[in-house]
Amino acid sequence: MPFSEIRYEVADGVCTVTLNRPDRLNAVTSTMLGELGEAWDRADADDAVRAVIVTGAGRAFCAGADLGAGGATFVYSRGRAVSAEDHRDGGGTVTLRIFDMKKPVIAAINGPAVGFGITLTLPMDVRIASTAARIGFVFARRGVVPEACSTWFLPRLVGISQAAEWVYTGRVFGADEALAARLVSRVVAPEALLPTARQLALEIAQNTSAVSVTLARQMMWKLLGADHPAEAHRLDSLAMFWTGRSADAREGVNAFLEKRPARFTLRPSADLPPFYPWWQPRPFRSSRD
What we know:
Elements: E1 6-11, E2 14-19, H1 30-45, E3 51-56, H2 90-99, E4 105-109, E5 112-114, H3 116-119, E6 126-130, E7 134-136, H4 150-158, H5 160-169, E8 172-174, H6 175-180, E9 186-188, H7 193-207, H8 210-222, H9 229-244, H10 247-257
Parallel strand pairs: 2-3, 3-4, 4-6, 5-7, 6-9
Antiparallel strand pairs: 1-2, 7-8
Helix pairs in contact: 1-2, 4-5
């Protein structure tokens, strides 16, 4: 199915997803949310995709919610009988899907990224910002609350005090402040943004085992809430036992000894170990269930 509000392109093992409503500063709509969910599914199922870059068309990354509906923008039950217990935040469905991705995801923040425009990036693995980026967790200034699971992700990325300052004030800040707080890993000139993101994606695509990266990604993300390092030890032990016997491990060692590029063959679509996924996400249920 063709996309109407995003672009989806794959080349050299790298998938680039571009938010594509430049006339509205790539403000998010229900259509865009649905298309993003489909893009994640498509990238995960395609063994030719080793890494994903997300960026915005035109001068913005994403201006957050499209406020074209005026004061009713956040009245999600318009025309439908929906209770608070039944409602599910659309941004959260998108970020939870990123959280479970098998492929690394890199945000290339090319301009303004406010509201959902920045919470969208929090479960991504690396955020690189242009000097033109302007970032804001502006929810309190719109009379709503942070969404897209950002109250879980943001304090883990920058600490509770920095997260609280940004969220409680709702102010917009620049790329240098985001870098100082480690919300982004690099700030580069606008013309260098996509080449920098692509260079990182290609480093992954051309030099690593896809299955190793998939497992490492989920081990790090899912262990963020672990109570004790012994939980990591148990998972490390299981994963090392399985990967150590794999064809990719043999190839990785032989390639190193023979001083040649490795040719990894295991595929995330078919060759993940039997214990994957080892986590048990709680389903979203209404209070009546």
